[in-house]
TrEMBL record:
The name this protein goes by in its record: Fimbrillin family protein
Top-level taxonomy: Bacteria, Pseudomonadati, Bacteroidota, Bacteroidia, Bacteroidales
Pfam families: Mfa_like_1 (PF13149)
InterPro entries: Mfa-like_1, Mfa-like_1_N
Length: 311
C-alpha cells in the first residue's frame, strides 16, 4: 500500500503543471493585431505629355511601395512591394501590415523599365526622353495600424526636369537636319542618385549632357520641316545653373553636320526644376537663329528673345 510520502511526487508534478498553465495564460501577452495598409488613391502631378495642371488620378498600372519602421519599432523593412490597380489598389502577392507604432512608406510608379529593388539610391541619368524612364514617386508618409493612420494617398512628382526643344525654319537654305544636341553649364548633372524616402539628390557626374536626336539611326537625326515644327525632348537631373556672365545654359546644335552655339540668358533659364518642362523654341533662319524660352510647370510663362548662332 502506498503511503502519503509516496504521493508527494504526483502532487508536486500536478502543482507545477498548474503553475505553468497559469503563467502561459496570464503573463505572456497575445501578439499585437496587424491591419493591412490601405492605399486610397495615387496621383501624378504635372503629366509630361498632357501638361495637366490638376494632378492625374492613376486608375491603372502598378506601384512599388517601401515600408520602414521608426527606430526601436518591430517592423520588418519592406522593399518594392507591388500593388496593382483593379477597382482600387490591391497587393499583387505580399500585403503590407501595420501595427500600433509609426512607420514610413514611400512609393513610385512602376514601368517596363523601372522596377526598383531599393529606395535609398535610385540611379538617374540625363538622357533623351523616354516615358518608361520618367520616374514619378512620392516621399515618406507616416502610417500606423490605427483607423486614422492605416490609409495613405500617394501624390507623386517627377524626379526629372525636362527640356523640350521645338525646331522650326524660315528661309533656311539647306536640309535642316538636327543630329545632336549638347546642353552645357558648370552645374549640369549627367548622373545622380535619388533617395525616394527623402527626395534628396546626390550628384555623381557633373558635366555637359549630349544626346543624339535619333536613337535608332544617329546620322539621320530629325528633319525640321519647311512649315510647322518638330520636337526633341531630354530628361535632365534638376540643378541650379551657374550664371556665367549673364549666360545660363549654352546649347551646341549639330545642324547639317555643322556646329551651332547658342547661349541662353540666365535670367530666362536659371534652373532646371523637377516636374517642369523648360520649352526652348528655335527658329533656324538663313541669317539668324530666333529663340524663345518658356517654363511649363504645367502653365505657360513665355519669354522671347532672338540670338545669332555662333559657328
Amino acid at each position: 500500500m502506498k503511503t502519503k510520502s509516496d504521493m508527494k511526487p504526483f502532487i508536486i508534478a500536478a502543482l507545477s503543471l498548474t503553475l505553468l498553465v497559469g503563467c502561459g495564460n496570464d503573463d505572456f501577452p497575445a501578439e499585437e493585431p496587424k491591419v493591412p495598409l490601405e492605399i486610397t488613391s495615387a496621383f501624378v502631378t504635372g503629366d509630361v505629355q498632357t501638361r495637366a495642371v490638376t494632378p492625374e488620378l492613376l486608375t491603372s498600372g502598378s506601384i512599388g511601395v517601401f515600408l520602414e519602421g521608426r527606430s526601436g519599432t518591430g517592423y520588418d523593412k519592406k522593399d518594392n512591394i507591388q500593388y496593382n490597380y483593379n477597382v482600387g489598389w490591391k497587393p499583387q502577392t505580399e500585403t503590407i501590415y501595420l501595427g500600433g507604432e509609426d512607420a514610413d512608406v514611400c512609393a513610385y510608379k512602376k514601368t517596363t523599365k523601372l522596377d526598383l529593388s531599393a529606395k535609398e539610391a535610385v540611379p538617374l541619368v540625363s538622357r533623351i526622353y523616354d516615358a518608361e524612364i520618367d520616374l514619378v514617386y512620392a516621399t515618406n508618409q507616416t502610417v500606423n495600424g490605427t483607423s486614422a493612420g492605416k490609409s495613405v494617398e500617394f501624390t507623386m512628382g517627377h524626379a526629372y526636369s525636362q527640356i523640350e526643344f521645338v525646331f522650326s525654319r524660315e528661309d533656311y537654305p539647306n536640309t535642316c537636319k538636327v543630329t545632336e544636341i549638347t546642353v552645357k553649364n558648370a552645374n549640369i548633372i549627367k548622373t545622380a542618385t535619388l533617395n525616394l524616402a527623402t527626395g534628396g539628390y546626390t550628384p555623381v557626374t557633373v558635366e555637359k549632357v549630349s544626346y543624339w536626336t535619333n536613337v535608332a539611326k544617329h546620322e539621320d537625326g530629325i528633319a525640321v520641316p519647311e512649315s510647322g515644327t518638330v520636337k526633341s525632348n531630354v530628361l535632365m537631373i534638376p540643378c541650379t545653373l551657374v550664371n556665367a556672365g549673364g549666360t545660363g545654359v549654352t546649347l551646341e546644335l549639330t545642324v547639317d553636320g555643322k556646329l551651332m552655339t547658342v547661349p541662353i540668358a540666365h535670367d530666362k533659364l536659371g534652373a532646371l526644376t523637377a516636374g517642369v518642362i523648360h520649352q526652348i523654341s528655335l527658329k533656324l533662319k538663313g541669317t539668324a537663329l530666333e529663340i524663345s524660352v518658356k517654363d511649363t510647370p504645367w502653365d505657360n510663362q513665355p519669354v522671347d528673345g532672338e540670338y545669332n548662332p555662333e559657328p
